[in-house]
Design goal:
Layout (H helix, E strand, L loop, with lengths): L8 H9 L16 H22 L3 H12 L1 H4 L4 H7 L5 H19 L3 H24 L25 H15 L4 H25 L4 H17 L4 H25 L71 H6 L5
Helix pairs in contact: 2-10, 5-9, 6-7, 6-8, 7-8, 7-10, 7-11, 8-9, 8-10, 9-10
């Protein structure tokens, strides 16, 4: 009795890596719900409050200077090497390549371009909004500050808000945004929040950003993630246009392609009246293999206990006259015993 083998964890992992036969009928696309809109409005208010607190040189700017004079990289030098590597999780190039590779597999597996397009749209929004704020306010970083206690605004800098922090929020948060199940979305949201928090504090530790830069970077990245449902119709139209362009290119390529040469049909061998096969015509490919003749015992098929030793024609074995068949019917058919 054949029983099915129980799948192991590794088997389930490889089965998960297989491509789905067709695109899923329903893809979980987040909508701009009231809860999400309330979060977006609250984050936008927080963003504006941080900018205003820095512009008026409030207590937040004094806190920035206190943290800078504290010099965390001198207080805990033993973690400096680790922080230098950890802060890479907020750099645009390495993180975009890693996340794009994962989302590219998701796109291939589900027959949809939405994961890659969502990543592209979010990074484009990040470059436009954060880049405009950086160069528009022109704040200098802690290492280049000129006047103690000032907000260092409009002096040609580009660190407000923190690009590392905003990029970490968007790049790792997009994985939670595109999660296929609510449980995976919750876990990925927590993981991306911890990662972006660590990246932001790493820049404060290294002295490359003010604490207020990090706070504004968190708000800027979160605003982009919360605004993505408004851009889902644009992503859908872009996907339809790209797939339509691909289909038209395939169709145009198929018409322009040269006609394939017909493959010659195989030669059918038919028996002749003399009982021998005619020699097949020489083909341009390899000649068919010829099988050695098979000698079968004459008479009807019987069980092995009723078969008699038969010496085939042309065999080098001499007939054994002293052997007597065990079946009288077989002996009548072969009186010579050969």
């Amino acid at each position: 009795m054949r029983t099915e083998r129980k799948l192991t964890r590794l088997d389930r992992v490889f089965a998960r890596l297989d491509r789905e036969p067709e695109r899923p009928a329903l893809l979980d696309v987040p909508e701009m719900s009231r809860h999400r809109f309330a979060l977006f409005a609250g984050t936008l208010a927080f963003y504006i409050a941080i900018v205003w607190a820095v512009l008026i040189t409030s207590w937040l700017v004094r806190l920035d200077w206190q943290v800078m004079f504290f010099r965390p990289y001198q207080q805990w030098p033993e973690i400096h090497a680790f922080v230098d590597y950890y802060v890479v999780l907020g750099q645009r190039g390495p993180t975009a390549v890693m996340v794009a590779a994962w989302l590219g597999w998701r796109s291939w597996r589900q027959h949809t371009l939405r994961p890659l397009l969502a990543l592209g749209v979010s990074l484009l929004l990040l470059n436009v909004t954060v880049g405009a704020a950086k160069y528009g306010m022109g704040r200098l970083g802690p290492h280049y500050a000129t006047t103690i206690g000032s907000n260092e605004m409009w002096r040609g800098g580009d660190i407000f808000p923190s690009g590392h922090t905003a990029n970490a929020v968007v790049t790792w948060g997009i994985l939670a945004y595109l999660a296929s199940t609510p449980r995976a979305r919750r876990w990925l949201s927590a993981l991306s929040a911890v990662t972006s928090l660590g990246v932001g504090m790493s820049t404060v530790y290294l002295g490359t950003h003010w604490l207020s830069d990090v706070l504004l970077g968190w708000a800027a990245g979160l605003l982009i993630l919360l605004a993505l449902p408004w851009l889902e119709p644009l992503i859908t139209r872009a996907e339809a246009w790209i797939l339509g362009l691909r289909d038209r290119w395939y169709a145009r390529r198929g018409r322009a392609a040269p006609a394939k040469q017909p493959v010659s049909a195989p030669v059918v061998l038919t028996p002749t009246t003399s009982g021998r096969e005619e020699a097949p015509a020489r083909e341009p490919l390899a000649a068919p293999r010829t099988r050695a003749p098979v000698y079968l015992a004459p008479g009807p098929h019987t069980t092995r206990s009723d078969r008699t030793p038969v010496t085939p024609a042309g065999s080098r074995r001499p007939p054994h006259a002293d052997r007597h068949p065990r079946n009288p019917a077989s002996a009548a058919r072969h009186p010579s015993g050969g």
